[in-house]
Amino acid sequence: MTEDELPPRRARKLATRQALLDGALRLLEQQSLTSLGLREVTREAGIAPAAFYRHFGDLGELGVALVEESFGSLRALIRDIRTPEADTEDVIRRSVDLVAAHVRAHRAHFCFLARERYGGVASVRAAIAGELDSFVRELADDLAAQPESEGWSAPELSVLARLYVNVLMLTAASMIEAGPDDPAAEQSILTEALMQLRMITVGRRYWTENR
Amino acid sequence: MTEDELPPRRARKLATRQALLDGALRLLEQQSLTSLGLREVTREAGIAPAAFYRHFGDLGELGVALVEESFGSLRALIRDIRTPEADTEDVIRRSVDLVAAHVRAHRAHFCFLARERYGGVASVRAAIAGELDSFVRELADDLAAQPESEGWSAPELSVLARLYVNVLMLTAASMIEAGPDDPAAEQSILTEALMQLRMITVGRRYWTENR
DNA sequence: GAGAAGAGCAAACAGTCGTTCACCGAGTGA
DNA sequence: TCACTCGGTGAACGACTGTTTGCTCTTCTC
Predict the structure, then answer these.
(1) Which residues form the HTH tetR-type domain (chains A, B) (predicted)?
(2) How far apart are CA B159 and CA A174, in angstroms?
(3) Tag placement on chain A: N or C end, fewer CB within 10 Å?
(4) In chain B, positions 84-143, which contact chain A (CB-CB < 8 Å)?
(5) Number of structural domains, chain A?
(6) Does B154 contact chain A (CB < 8 Å)?
(7) Digits of tens for pLDDT over chain B (211 positions)?
(8) Distances (CA, A) of B78 to B85, B137, B155
(9) What is the Cα gyration radius of chain A?
(10) What is the residue range of B153's domain?
């Protein structure tokens, strides 16, 4: 096994930086980024207020860092969803299951993304939009590689991909809003998402002959 | 023509209440409800901080009132969209146009709704969700009355209606994010929304034979 | 026209806020 | 080993916060 691989100096700095991110994320489950206080965050992280400036110049910077962290864990989910060959129904079903599992495992991250996607900090909104765009592009590429996409133009595939992504993001947001302790509500949200994805996919199948 | 119809006492009270709502809405274009300050709002409305309590016990109460006001203007839009008989393509096109016009006319209201739909104040989130639910129910009823809905169950119609509503709400949110002075971006958002609605509608047409 | 009601005000309350500053002490690199 | 870098500290700053209190002055009610 390898050693820590990091000089203790940098390691400690990264650790308290992470403490700041974790503390902020915890607080952001109940409020929005614009209402977050610098002292509040440092209190939650267990450091002095002034130490904040050693890591971020601004609470907005911390917000952007949180976006990167959130999408970092999302990328694993995306990689799991992207399986080139499989029955369409299976892909849909597995996508919904994976999103559900991921929301359960990273509730705070999704809560943050849902809240700040149209929140009050422009730089954070832009960061989220950019990450979602690259997600949409990846999905559009995957869709393009499938035989069902014969006769589809690139813009059409992009629009379809965004529709899929939006449904999944709204599903995640609904799960967050339902709370973690309501399996019945969660189940109905997931079956609804399943049906919406199926409807869209039926539309996709007959699109070229009805466009 | 009729007189003011209102005792001057109540009229004045309603006027300053409206000034509070207007001022808050103006501030909420750049921040979120949880970060809104009571003094900030009263300053914007031109009254003393203490006078706030004559109208609302709480900033959350003001938020709920803003939800009602926002959906009040939305209801006019919904009534316009609901036209029993028309070609499906026409309905889609007209819906997108109406949403676009309504966003342009009531930008601040949509900005508020997009931001607080998953924002930090639970009572406001609940109020928005409730209004959206009743919107979904109305649309589902309209859809049920159409001949294309033969063979559809009530839950299926509800799911479809929610999908339509979500697309329209996300379209509005995208328009807000693009800003009022970018006609090119606005046009591409609207054509994307149009295509998404068409794809869903194709799915609807072939749903019963592919479900 | 007298008295009650109530919308709005200024002032004061104890807190909290973001930011700056000099300073400490442990890790770093020669 | 010695100078140095630098993450973290505690104190202090003025500004701003939500809420309460007692008070005006207009409007309503009888």
Answers:
(1) 14-74
(2) 14
(3) N
(4) 114-115, 117-120, 125, 129
(5) 1
(6) no
(7) 344 566 788 999 999 999 999 999 999 999 999 999 999 999 999 999 999 999 999 999 999 999 999 999 899 888 888 876 678 899 999 999 999 999 999 999 999 999 999 999 999 999 999 999 999 999 999 999 999 999 999 999 999 999 999 999 999 999 999 999 999 999 999 999 999 999 999 999 999 999 8
(8) 15, 12, 21
(9) 20
(10) 60-205
